[in-house]
Amino acid sequence: MPESSQHGVSASAPTPTGPQGRQKAEATPAPPPPDGPRRPHPVFWAIAGALVVIAWQQVRSPAGGPTGLAMAQPTAGSGLRGVYSFAAELGRERYGVYMVDVDTMTIWCYEYARDEGCLKLAAARSWKYDRYLENFNGCGIPPDKVKELLEDQRAYRSESVPAP
Question: What angle do CA 98, 102, 104 make, to 5 degrees?
Answer without folding.
Answer: 105
